[in-house]
């Protein structure tokens, strides 16, 4: 059997069959013989499990893992445990890829002997698509400054005071639209932290970029990220902010262990604030939240006085924030949570409209 250049890992939980079929179809359409497909059935309902088993993979080298639900982090680890490719990429089960993705990303990585490669994606809203890319041209090898910046971008995106062209304003934390050299991941012991349910990919990629020697970026839009309200990014969770907190705790532990600079801590504090606001939007103000609004606001205010958020709000410097980001920090510090909720709802509406 020919050497395997690429392992493609697809974690599957509960997804619409037509989306999963489109995902598999797009992988088969790559016509890339030097690959294996690893499908991790992470406790999906029986109909999805049967669909995975019965799908016609047309002779492709396929490995199927059926397991109890353990979350996407441990599902990706399960794929990494058995992958045999020189490189690995992750595709979510409701997303697709297009063009000559596999050929181009592996060629680009081989040319530069890269540890990790980023490439572009489209956010697919059905009637329209939005380009999402972290760098605005091909970069065969990151400079030390670009490597430092991509670590910051992974956490929060571009910082107002840190200009490293040709960057864009988009962050780099998603597990998707990345290619990793498997031997690099193994040498550095880089795996997902099991149990993390939100931002597990951001936490993982932060460590990846920090440990990588050779990083590259390919300005091609191959990955199609379907925006669906049933995905984990849109689901209301009663304990949503605690799930964010688990990822923040892991990031803080890494920063302290590695002796990172004050600037890294400032970026971390920004991420704490962003997650606090995101959870306010997704969980506390979610229409599916059964609590009264007054109770939700009271709980949000209480959470702001707990770690790691209280540390972040006390230590985050405003000169590191855009004007639009200074406003919520001011409102939080002054206990104006009803005004904060109204401001953030308006801000997100304008942001979504412009996007």
Report on this structure:
The protein has 355 residues and is of the alpha/beta class. It has 2 domains: 6-226, Spore Coat Polysaccharide Biosynthesis Protein SpsA, Chain A; 240-354, no CATH class. It is built from 13 helices and 9 strands. The longest helix has 23 residues, at 262-284.
The percentage of residues in β strands lies in: 15-25%
Please state the oligomeric state of the protein chains shown: single chain
> Total domains, how many?
2
Major sheet details: 9 strands, mixed
Question: What is the CATH-assigned architecture of the largest domain?
Answer: Alpha-Beta Complex
Structure summary:
With 355 residues, the chain is α/β, with parallel strands linked by helices. It is 46% helix and 16% strand.
Question: What is the topological layout?
Answer:
Blueprint: E1 6-12, H1 17-28, E2 35-42, H2 46-54, E3 62-67, H3 72-82, E4 87-90, E5 96-97, H4 101-112, E6 116-124, E7 129-132, H5 144-156, E8 178-181, H6 182-187, H7 200-211, E9 215-226, H8 240-257, H9 262-284, H10 293-304, H11 309-315, H12 323-333, H13 337-354
Parallel strand pairs: 1-2, 1-4, 2-3, 6-9
Antiparallel strand pairs: 4-8, 5-9, 6-7, 6-8
Characteristics:
355 residues, alpha/beta, Spore Coat Polysaccharide Biosynthesis Protein SpsA, Chain A, 2 domains, 9-stranded mixed beta sheet, 13 helices, 9 strands, 46% helix, 16% strand
